[in-house]
């Protein structure tokens, strides 16, 4: 049984009311989705942590159902965690990183009240999302990046740039387009754009397309989920990938 400080958020108003009860209390917000397998594990981690830290408030937010809350925190993938004191951001944890979440909760739920926006305190928030090798890639010139992007786009006849992987998608659109491609019996390569910020931002510019997923066929952008779905419905897609 979940502890009394472990609450399923029902609406934006409900969310605000819960936070405003005590503006000195630490809140751990878990953005999750029922279709994302990694969320199952992290939901259990959050539930256990709520028992260990009864003074903190643990809020479960179904990311797509409560889209207004998700958008207010710029949530782009699940699972994602946001730790607040009142309305002040303490830390973010991206992905199914149980050790990072446990460490963050231990730090903030037992720490004395102090300014959460200090440079020192904010530094750990980015740690879970650091990608190995990014420091070296910072030296990459725009020309080198575009060359790398072209290679990624041409690694296979069909390439899906998505959030997460087909086995563990981290957004609903990525989940749906992966399923659509599988239903169409399409062999495709994939790239997790959350693993490389340079690729993520570079593709937006190169393809003049601001969102993900992006489906590439024969080295050229086809579009996102809506366009691919429309092409499947009209029969164009089978001709394109034949």
UniProtKB/TrEMBL annotation:
Belongs to the glutaredoxin family. Monothiol subfamily. It comes from Agrocybe pediades. This is Thioredoxin domain-containing protein. Monothiol glutaredoxin involved in the biogenesis of iron-sulfur clusters. Binds one iron-sulfur cluster per dimer. The iron-sulfur cluster is bound between subunits, and is complexed by a bound glutathione and a cysteine residue from each subunit. It comes from the Eukaryota. InterPro entries: Glutaredoxin, GRX_PICOT-like, Monothiol_GRX-rel, Thioredoxin-like_sf, Thioredoxin_domain. The lineage of its organism: Eukaryota, Fungi, Dikarya, Basidiomycota, Agaricomycotina. One of its GO terms (cellular component) is cytosol. The keyword Iron-sulfur applies. Residues 1-110 form the Thioredoxin domain.
